[in-house]
Amino acid sequence: MNVHVVPTPATAADSIRHDWTREEAQAIHDLPFNDLLFRAATVQRRHFDPNKIQLARLLSIKTGGCAEDCGYCSQSAHHASGTGLKASKLMEVERVLSEARKAKAQGATRYCMGAAWRSPKNRDMASVVAMVEGVKAMGMETCMTLGMLSDDDVLKLKDAGLDYYNHNIDTSERYYASIIKTRTFADRLDTLSRVRDAGIKVCSGGIVGLGETIEDRVDMLVTLANLPEHPESVPINMLIAIAGTPLEDQKKVDPIAFVRIIALARIMMPTSYVRLSAGRTEMSDEMQAMCFFAGANSIFCGETLLTADNPGEDKDQVLFAKLGMTPEALEGGTDTEAGDETTATERTSCGCAGPSAEAASSCMTATSAR
Ligand code: SF4
User: Fold this and answer.
1) Is-contact 305 333, C-beta < 8 A?
2) Residue 161 buriedness (CB in 10 A; 0-12 / 13-18 / 19+)
3) 61 ligand 1 Cβ < 6 A
4) Where is coiled-coil annotated (predicted)?
5) Is 99 among the domain residues?
6) Containing domain of residue 63, as a range?
7) DSSP 8-state symbol, 299
8) Is the pLDDT of residue 325 over 50?
């Protein structure tokens, strides 16, 4: 029997809005779970193929020793005595490009690079720019996460051809100072606005499980959805409580509560990629499947997210096969563009070369808070 998918009708929530009130967001969040999921899945189907998933990958180009004090982060110099993580220097440009070349050969078209900085120093910008230019010259899209940026930094990155900048708002404005004291919520929004004004695409989300209230989670999404433009990517992380950080004893997030946040993000930002980011190792297949049904359509792949574990690509592929999901076609490319030696199996992975040994000992933060 042939089964035809009937397009679902538009709903009131299925418009691009930037004027959400916290009350209406909270009311959607609090819907009976089945109604919430149905609504989120309906919105998703209007804008995306629900059986396709975007795969992203990170390379840590500079690990540890960060001057910020984010309570969840192993890369903070403030927590180094507890975590034992040593700071590394900025990776050499040629080494980054060599990793990127391998990624390209395996089919990657987007390459994400993260550095554990409060903000980049002038002396580092030349290398960072060379990395962006070098990766762009290979024909891949670039994404960077480097902390707060000045106008000058943004211009340099834009001129180098940077496509995306990741800068998460972490949590609500109200709860922010309970987690981070070395910068303010407004600092985050300033950098996001500089990046957007320069014409660089925005990747920005937050973390669930920092000890925040449900209201804080909703407010975080209201802030993102009420930006002048929605972030093109919205990573939603589930806290990985890292030993030696101030949040090492945080309670695990209730899976249903987490899925509600994914669904709300999907409904409020219908055309954004909602990325299931850090914390997937703690999620069952069933929980991830529910997140995908609720509107998550992007993941980080690979066995580490900087320092934190992540399900390997094999495990992901088994899950995708069970769910009948396939990686999204590479933007502007074809399945065979990646290179003659690339096998079909490799092309179904994220195609990235994987983190270096240094990056593998880094942290989850490029996916959670940068
Ligand atoms: S989350 Fe980012 S900014 Fe915060 S301490 Fe870690 S590396 Fe630094």
Assistant:
1) no
2) middle
3) no
4) none
5) yes
6) 22-330+341-368
7) E
8) yes
Q: Which residues are catalytic?
A: 66, 70, 73, 112, 143, 203, 275
Looking at residue 284, the DSSP 8-state letter turns out to be -
Q: What is the pLDDT of residue 212?
A: 97
Give residue 312's pLDDT band: very low, low, confident or very high (50, 70, 90): low
Mean pLDDT computed over every residue of the chain: 84
Q: Please check whether residue 336 lies inside any domain of the structure.
A: no
Task: Report if residue 135 sits inside a domain.
Answer: yes
pTM here is 0.85
Return the residue whose CA atom lies nearest to atom 2 of ligand 1.
370
pLDDT for 232-261, tens place per residue? 999 999 999 999 999 999 999 999 999 999
Instruction: Assess whether the C-beta atom of 106 lies below 6 angstroms from ligand 1.
Output: no
Q: What is the number of helices (H) and of strands (E) in the chain?
A: 15, 13
Residue 78 Cα to ligand 1 midpoint, Å, equals: 10
Q: The domain that contains 203 carries what CATH number?
A: 3.20.20.70
Stretch 100-104: mean pLDDT: 82
**Number of domains forming the structure of the chain:** 1
The verdict on residue 259 lying in a domain is yes
